[in-house]
Specification:
By secondary structure, the protein is mainly beta. It has 2 domains: 103 residues, no CATH class; 154 residues, Lipid/polyisoprenoid-binding, YceI-like (Lipocalin, Beta Barrel), CATH 2.40.128. The strands form 2 sheets. Strands 6-9-10-12-13-14-15-16 form an 8-stranded antiparallel beta barrel. A 5-stranded antiparallel beta sheet has the order 1-2-3-4-5. A hairpin with a 5-residue loop joins strand 3 and strand 4. The two termini are 31 Å apart. About 5% of the residues have low confidence.
Length: 266
């Protein structure tokens, strides 16, 4: 078990006054390093420790005797003795592997989608027409793998655009999105697992007063100080009450694609 100091939110260099320490556990079988908890120093000088969600997904990891409850929140007036002298030495030969495994800037930051360089699109097959393609122009979302929920995306339903005004008006109506009564489409994650540049997310999609479970496979890549994301999934819109289908022309499921850039939240 080791501890690494995290830089401040502005990306400054970690020092002895760093406000957060990340607790890292090494799997004895695979030798892989896994962040499992975080110790945060509050402005009043006290400390708070809690396990992060990744710890719950590690079958071989057991809670520490000093912190026996995985869902517990532990508060201390002074630095807990467990954390003294536990920062991994850079002289260890596996120190580079340790740092790569942590991927600190991704795991311990809030990332916000940049609408100016992103897109939220949908594709639906319609018999006799082909594939109807559309997008939403107004939305906001975040990715924070240390938070709960880890992934959120909120879309303004009336911002949909399929390049056909009459069709768009119908899609905003009670037959589909019921945008006047239910102005937002929202996805909220229940779990998110990052492996390399692959992010697997499970959560709930909310639209027109209904909801349905949704699984998303995404690719997240670092591009300089930003993240590039591409997420694709498919949803049966009938489960959200969008059942209008004259002559059975509209096929299911609808393909949903989110693609673009994430920037570190200020």
């Amino acid at each position: 078990m080791s501890v690494t100091e995290l830089p401040e939110a502005d990306g400054g260099k970690a020092t002895e006054t760093a406000r957060r320490l990340l607790l890292v556990w090494q799997d004895p079988a695979t030798r892989a390093f896994n962040p499992v908890g975080a110790l945060v120093r509050d402005p009043d000088g006290s400390f708070v420790f809690r396990y992060i969600r990744r710890a719950l997904r590690l079958p071989a990891f057991l809670p520490l005797a000093s912190f026996p409850q995985l869902d517990g929140i532990y508060r201390f007036a002074d630095l807990p003795p467990f954390f003294e002298n536990r920062v991994m030495s850079p002289r260890r030969p596996d120190y580079p592997d340790y740092l790569r495994a942590l991927d600190l800037s991704l795991e311990q930051a809030t990332w916000r989608i940049d609408p100016a360089r992103s897109s939220v699109r949908f594709n639906t097959k319609v018999w006799g027409i082909g594939t109807v393609k559309g997008h939403f122009s107004r939305y906001h979302g975040t990715l924070d793998l240390s938070a709960e929920p880890a992934v959120e995306l909120t879309i303004e339903a009336d911002s949909l655009d399929t390049k056909n005004a009459k069709r768009d008006e119908h899609l905003r109506s009670q037959d589909f999105f019921a945008a006047e009564e239910h102005p937002y489409v929202r996805f909220v994650s229940e779990s998110a697992a990052l492996g390399g540049d692959r992010l697997k997310v499970r959560g709930v999609l909310h639209a027109r007063g209904a909801e349905m479970p949704l699984a998303i496979d995404a690719t997240v890549r670092r591009v300089g100080d930003e993240l590039e994301v591409e997420a694709v999934t498919a949803a049966d819109h009938h489960r959200l009450g969008m059942t209008w289908n004259r002559l059975a022309m509209i096929r299911t499921p609808t393909e949903l694609i989110v693609k673009g850039r994430l920037v570190r939240d200020a």
